[in-house]
Amino acid sequence: MTKKVIFFDIDGTLLDHDKALPKTAYEAVLELKNQGYYVAIATGRAAFAFEDLREQLGIETYVSLNGQYVVHEGEVVYKNPLDFEGIKQLETLSAKKRHPLVYLDAAGWQTNVQGDPYVNEAINSLKIDAPLVYDPEAYKKSDTYQALLFCEANAEKPYEEALDTFDFIRWHDYSVDVLPKGGSKALGIKKLMENLQVEKEHTYAFGDGLNDREMLHMIPNSVAMGNAREEVKTIAKYVTTDVAEDGILNGIKLAGLL
Predict the structure, then answer these.
(1) Which of 180, 195, 211 is the last residue of a domain?
(2) N or C, which terminus of the chain has less Cβ within 10 Å?
(3) Whole-angstrom distance, CA of residue 253 vs CA of residue 62
(4) Where are the alpha helices (DSSP H) in the chain?
(5) How far is 97 from 92, CA to CA, in rounded Å?
């Protein structure tokens, strides 16, 4: 059988609105693996933020940090850090506007503020056990693959105009992802596909968020969750039910995988 690779987003896709893995999703993913499909994760999270899920599902191949850090069976195959000079400009501008930042590397996350309500609300919504460390100079100590900028809707516009080395993608009412220009899950997946020697027609992808658009557009066998935004649903080949209504299982059936 030709190797087929299936990529799953995490939040709102594998994990439901309470950040739990539905029983039907768990069983469906295991059945895919039992039938010989290769299952991988494609997420905006860093590796430290989904260790338990990888262990639960037995998955060690993933596209993390929205495509900027890609691992195949424990081996890093692609890295795309944020431009260091760009981070300094971002830090300067955000300080003037009093917009907090969180820096993410492969092993953890650090913030340049303490006790900010926007940071607390957005970070707590992810329900990640790893502590958020206060370290305003973290980006000077190791490569940063993604940053989180905390501001209200549309307040990221001045950053988009001033910083042409980054892309800004909103994931929360109070926060946007800051990525290298042109960086995306789609790019990370391309790098992994090259490593696996798999053609696009043999790949599948499930997602729900704005950061999934490039991935769902690139992969021909794409599935948007029922809880996805309309602009995401219009891109995908299939639209399944809500993540909390057996969305993964139903989507797998729609795509003809089970």
Answers:
(1) 180
(2) N
(3) 23
(4) 23-34, 51-57, 84-97, 117-126, 157-162, 185-196, 213-218, 230-233, 247-254
(5) 9
The residue segments making up the domain with residue 170 are 84-180
Q: 166-177 burial string, b = 16+ CB within 10 Å, else e? A: bbbbbbbebbbb
- Strand order across the 238-239 sheet: 75-79, 69-72, 62-64, 38-42, 5-8, 203-207, 221-224, 238-239
Q: What percent of the chain has pLDDT over 90?
A: 98
* Cα–Cα dist 248/98, whole Å: 40
Using the structure block, give the residue that is written with the tokens 């994931």.
Answer: 171
Q: How many CA atoms does the CB half-sphere of 13 hold within 13 Å?
A: 29
Measuring CA to CA, which residue among 149, 168, 172, 151 is closest to residue 160?
168
CA distances from 89 to 84, 105, 165 (A): 9, 18, 10
- Number of structural domains the chain divides into: 2
71 with 193, same domain: the answer is: yes
Q: Are residues 139 and 73 in the same domain?
A: no
pLDDT in tens, 123-161: 999 999 999 999 999 999 999 999 999 999 999 999 999
CATH of the domain at 175: 3.30.1240.10
Strands 175-180 and 166-172: antiparallel
Type of residue at 188 = G
Question: What is the pTM assigned to this prediction?
Answer: 0.95
170 and 202 within one domain: no
